[in-house]
Amino acid sequence: xxxxxxxxxxxxxxxxxxxxxxxxxxxxxxxxxxxxxxxxxxxxxxxxxxxxxxxxxxxxxxxxxxxxxxxxxxxxxxxxxxxxxxxxxxxxxxxxxxxxxxxxxxxxxxxxxxxxxxxxxxxxxxxxxxxxxxxxxxxxxxxxxxxxxxxxxxxxxxxxxxxxxxxxxxxxxxxxxxxxxxxxxxxxxxxxxxxxxxxxxxxxxxxxxxxxxxxxxxxxxxxxxxxxxxxxxxxxxxxxxxxxxxxxxxxxxxxxxxxxxxxxxxxxxxxxxxxxxxxxxxxxxxxxxxxxxxxxxxxxxxxxxxxxxxxxxxxxxxxxxxxxxxxxxxxxxxxxxxxxxxxxxxxxxxxxxxxxxxxxxxxxxxxxxxxxxxxxxxxxxxxxxxxxxxxxxxxxxxxxxxxxxxxxxxxxxxxxxxxxxxxxxxxxxxxxxxxxxxxxxxxxxxxxxxxxxxxxxxxxxxxxxxxxxxxxxxxxxxxxxxxxxxxxxxxxxxxxxxxxxx
Length: 502
Description:
The chain contains 13 helices and 9 strands. It has 502 residues and is α+β, with helices and mostly antiparallel strands. The strands form 3 sheets. Strands 5-6-7-9-8 form a 5-stranded mixed sheet, covered by helices on one side. It has a two-stranded antiparallel ribbon with strand order 1-2. Strand 6 and strand 7 form a beta hairpin. Helix 2 packs antiparallel against helix 3. The protein is elongated and about 135 Å long. The C terminus is likely disordered.
């Protein structure tokens, strides 16, 4: 009966172990099946069957059997990763070794507790020998119940350590979309491999023969009961700390890349602003002078034609009718309007960006509608020019890219970009709306939509740059989707202490 109960205890233990496996894999990899729970159930079932079958047919004793079972476990996990999850990437290799290593360390930590609990058997034996327990059947029952209790506690402790450790690794590994490189894989695998080798060493040396009598290593060296758990705990911590360090390295690298991009944008923006300010001032001066000149010429021409009834074309030497001369001068006046900026927001940086981006995108999408009549900036806006350029520049780049993709998929679709702003108290709100194809790539760990470009490490940081810039002005960024319309909202303090550079 007790043997049957002991075997039955292994069933939920194996099921929970398979549950931890599918939960761990599922937090990193995309399942092939539409229903994730089917994938999880099959993964847990196959792994559980292997654990039961492997324990029966492969008895761990010498180093050879330990390595064989370990290699087979790695192969089983790799096959599960290939069959039930999309793509076999480097991260899959990492997941396989992490699960194997954490499982082995969890086993030995729970085994240490089992060894400490084994002192209860000595207590029952002492009670039996001293006559405190006189009934043999009662003594056997107490020993068997103690063994079952220790086995249950051992399994529970194993699952608890395994679950908490895997959950901690998955939680701290935030950049799950990051394409890991070979050297980075070796870096984060190193603590796992060290821990795995220590566990292999323990499995092959935990039992020793003394005078042809099997004896545990702890019995000969009692201090190991404290040293080995400490080593194993440090191995677990090194695995977790390795993940945290790796994630910090990714964040630092992304921050450096973002900063380099921002520096290039700032440098280019400042040069562009200086040039456009000079050109803009010249155009306004020339337009003002030319308008006055044309007005005088038209009045004089009208008066002269009324008196003479005609005029003289300088090039042909022929007399022009009054209407012809007026039409000629009106056309010249209209041509002067081309020097005027299409968009006027009250800020030279915004005007420059809007007009530049408009001309760039209309070369690809001639029927694009860009509306910015309601985008007005107050003259007292306390924002540095390049910060405003970063916000508008990245927002317009994303909007233009979205419109381009929409036109590629649906040439007959209406492509538009609308910008407006309003001030409420000390806050300035900027809203950018644009059409897009309706497809949003959003991950659970991300605050903003992800780029669908292949090189995700070099792209998809536009919204992050906007957020970082807005935070300098104690602001916030929000986005929403309604059908095929994407709306980006930016809120900043309009009277922030940083002075404008425009």
